[in-house]
């Protein structure tokens, strides 16, 4: 790779694709060179809005565009596996929007393909790359033994069977779209759980409208996580240790401030303000890794992505028993 800005190709024209295109304008590491959609009209509209020079009426055409250095998959969840595979088979490094895939088997397949082709691949869990989360990770050793991790993510959505979060065929449900953030946060702090318990409340279309999860770890630690499509929750997170705790303001998964509170002594407040939505930081990390010839990021390693998808599978299975 050269030091020239990465030329991104975006698969998909939904809200997160637009947010990524806008945030990329705040960084010097990359530019959007092309967009691909299943319809020419959607591609044209998106390209016009975001001033993108090339637009393709198929995902195949985008994957095979020689002027694209790296592909960002921002299509609905059920398409992630096929779309990422398409880009990898075309020889492109890939950033895949979360959730990475619909299940762990699909995740493992993509990882195996990327490793066989020696191509970069990463889940777009953009929270991992935010300045306040990087700082939180630096402070973890000061907490002592972590006892509890708690995180929630709740948003209110009008009940519309055509809306993707309520549509089973579009990978709807609170867990895959919202719960991935608390689950990934717990994984970042405690790793994979030994035990998983969960309770779900179905929406009118049958997808999970609300999910409560309890994870148990070999250390004795526990994670208490919730997500819902039915109400706006605090969307805060906390990490509680024997020596101190960290409380992250809501929404914890986006640029946020936090407080470090020792068991004894004065608390410390860390304020963070970030330009844009915060998606630019993961794009910068992709550029950094590609320039170094790396095929994954230590901030969101592929093995952990597969582990997280395995945990998500276990959560869903726990609600069916």
From TrEMBL:
<keyword id="KW-0560">Oxidoreductase</keyword>
<dbReference type="InterPro" id="IPR000683">
    <property type="entry name" value="Gfo/Idh/MocA-like_OxRdtase_N"/>
</dbReference>
<dbReference type="InterPro" id="IPR036291">
    <property type="entry name" value="NAD(P)-bd_dom_sf"/>
</dbReference>
<dbReference type="InterPro" id="IPR055170">
    <property type="entry name" value="GFO_IDH_MocA-like_dom"/>
</dbReference>
<dbReference type="Pfam" id="PF01408">
    <property type="entry name" value="GFO_IDH_MocA"/>
</dbReference>
<dbReference type="InterPro" id="IPR050984">
    <property type="entry name" value="Gfo/Idh/MocA_domain"/>
</dbReference>
<dbReference type="Pfam" id="PF22725">
    <property type="entry name" value="GFO_IDH_MocA_C3"/>
</dbReference>
<comment type="similarity">
    <text>Belongs to the Gfo/Idh/MocA family.</text>
</comment>
<feature type="domain" description="Gfo/Idh/MocA-like oxidoreductase N-terminal">
    <location>
        <begin position="6"/>
        <end position="122"/>
    </location>
</feature>
<feature type="domain" description="GFO/IDH/MocA-like oxidoreductase">
    <location>
        <begin position="136"/>
        <end position="247"/>
    </location>
</feature>
<protein>
    <submittedName>
        <fullName>Gfo/Idh/MocA family protein</fullName>
    </submittedName>
</protein>
